[in-house]
Design brief:
- This protein has helices at about 90-95, 115-130, 185-195, 200-210, and strands at about 30-40, 45-50, 60-65, 70-80, 85-90, 105, 110, 135-145, 150-160, 180-185.
- Strand 1 (about 30-40) and strand 2 form a beta hairpin.
- The protein is an alpha+beta fold.
C-alpha cells in the first residue's frame, strides 16, 4: 500500500497516478503512464506519453510535472497618493539559486486551496498586508513555468487606502510566515524592476501592466 495511491497521503489524497489519463483535448498526445514520485505536500509526477510531431512522426516522451495547485496574486494601489503595497519575505528557492539574501519584494499572493480565485486573494491580501480589499479587477491568468510546474496564477488589481487596513498583516505565524509590508511610490517600484531589486515575475508583470494599461498609465502618456 502506497500513500497517495492506494491509501490517503497526509492531505487525504489517493489515486494521484491517474491524473492525465483522461486528457482528450490534443489528439497529438496520448498519455501512456503516470508515475507518482512524491506527495510529501505537493505532487511530483513523471508522465510518459506519445507525441505526434508536425511531420507526422510519433515519439515517446517523458516529463516531470510539479503540481502545487493554482494560485492568485493582487497588486494593491492607491492612485491618490501614487503608491503600491508590496510584501517582503524569505524565499529559499531564490536564495539557493543566486539571490543575494532570498528576501523578495512581491505582490500579495497565495494558493487557492479549496477557494475560488477571488475569495483566495481576498484572504491572502488580508493575511499578508492587513488590508480588506473591495472591488477586484481581473487582469489575466498565466502559466508561470509551463515547462515543469502545472500552476496557473490568477492576477488581480485592487485599490487600497489607509481606511482599508483592518489588521496587522505579516502572514500566518502558525504557517511559518514572516512577511514585511512595504508601501512604495509606484515610480520607485518601477525603478526597482529596472535595477533588478524586484525580481519576482508576478510582481514585475503587475507593475508593468499598471504602467501600460492599469491605474498609473496616465503617468506615462
Amino acid at each position: 500500500m502506497t500513500a497517495g495511491l492506494d491509501t490517503p497521503d497526509r492531505r487525504g489524497r489517493t489515486h494521484l497516478d491517474r491524473v492525465g489519463h483522461d486528457l482528450t483535448g490534443n489528439p497529438r498526445v496520448r498519455v501512456r503512464d503516470v508515475t507518482l514520485l512524491s506527495c510529501h505536500w505537493y505532487v511530483l509526477r513523471t508522465t510518459t506519453f506519445d507525441y505526434r510531431h508536425r511531420d507526422g512522426r510519433w515519439s515517446t516522451e517523458q516529463r516531470e510535472t510539479y503540481d502545487r495547485g493554482n494560485g492568485a496574486t493582487v497588486l494593491l494601489y492607491d492612485t491618490e497618493r501614487g503608491t503600491v503595497l508590496l510584501t517582503r519575505q524569505f524565499r529559499y528557492p531564490a536564495y539557493v539559486n543566486g539571490h543575494p539574501d532570498g528576501m523578495l519584494l512581491e505582490t500579495a499572493a497565495g494558493l487557492l486551496d479549496q477557494d475560488d480565485p477571488e475569495t483566495a486573494i481576498r484572504r491572502e491580501a488580508a493575511e499578508e498586508t492587513g488590508h480588506t480589499i473591495g472591488a477586484l479587477q481581473h487582469v489575466f491568468d498565466v502559466y508561470m513555468s509551463p515547462g515543469s510546474v502545472t500552476e496557473r496564477l490568477h492576477f488581480y488589481a485592487a485599490p487600497y487606502s489607509p481606511g482599508t487596513r483592518t489588521g496587522a498583516g505579516g502572514g500566518v505565524a502558525e504557517e511559518g510566515e514572516d512577511i514585511e509590508v512595504l508601501e512604495l511610490p509606484f515610480t520607485e517600484a518601477l525603478d526597482l524592476v529596472r535595477t533588478g531589486a524586484i525580481a519576482d515575475a508576478k510582481t514585475v508583470m503587475l507593475l508593468q501592466w499598471a504602467a501600460l494599461d492599469g491605474p498609473f498609465q496616465r503617468i506615462f502618456r
